[in-house]
Amino acid sequence: MQPLVLTLGEPAGIGPDLALAVWLRRAELQVPRFYVVADADFLRRRADRLGLDVPIATVTPNAAAAAFPSALPVVPLDAPVSAEPGRPDRTSAPAAIASIRRAVADVLAGAAAAVVTNPIAKNVLYKSGFAEPGHTEFLASLVEEATGKSLRPVMMLWSPELAVVPVTIHLPLREIFAHLSTELIVETGRIVARDLTNRFRVSRPRLAVAGLNPHAGEEGALGAEDRDIVAPAVARLKAEGIAARGPLPADSLFHERARASYDVALCMYHDQALIPIKTLAFDHAVNVTLGLPFVRTSPDHGTAFDIAGTGLADAKSLIAALRLARRLAAADSPAPVVTS
Fold first, then answer.
1. d(CA 224, CA 227)
2. For the segment 100-127, what is each residue's pLDDT rounded down to a tens digit?
3. Distance, CA of 29 to CA of 296 (rounded, Å)
4. Domains of the chain
5. How confident is the model over 288-337, as pLDDT tens digits?
6. Burial level of 143, CB count in 10 A (0-12/13-18/19+)?
């Protein structure tokens, strides 16, 4: 199998630190082979700052796997990167965007098995004119640009303890009511069920669908959305043979006994999904984009500007993202199906 491709992420953040640290402990951690799309000189400077003895090899994607045992393989960006730890500069956004673009091009061309993305700083990208709300939407736009095919990506946060999907993602709370629809929930549920079956090897995924309002609306007494929007979506998913149930009160959906009854929780908005998983699995949860023609994972944390360049960053989430990417990319190989 081809190596994974790891993006640079925000150069001033902890992404470069983690890439260097994980490669240095590659044998101990048993991480799959990967290469980084980055400015090699920038990574050398960061390694020197961290006091890490990391040889760096500038390679093509096809040579990355062979180079990995003895050096960190780097596929070079076209432009130099000058950002210092914790201090994004004018090179930050172009480098982060170019790294993602190259990674997607490589995986679509078959040069990489999957994409693993380091954290980006959305506010830095927005100031440069970046038009997408985040990684998930940008990845979809790149696929559409390359293939001409429209798709809708779905963000799933996964950990051994819990998997969650926000049906609406990067929206202010006041806009959720205008965007949430039965069709959106149904489409999300279909994509989740398909990818859990095809890539996660779950034979019949169980979807728990959270209500939007307190107590799932109390049959309309606390809001009509659960009765009029969420419940019909659950009925349609069930009619299609998907094991879905809900709307369920979100306040009792995430304790241990409840979690054992489903494979993924579909939540109606961003924080309803991310608060429980970050509480349960803050240092090892993985962001997975469903609905793409390739596997994409990412650490479930931010750029951590305050500790960039200090050596204090915890690599657990990146390690989990690399391992999960390899597992999902290998899903086409013969393997036993796991029944929930």
1. 5
2. 999 999 999 999 999 999 999 888 988 8
3. 20
4. 1-153+292-340 (3.40.718.10), 161-280 (3.40.718.10)
5. 999 999 999 999 889 999 999 999 999 999 999 999 999 999 985 443 33
6. buried
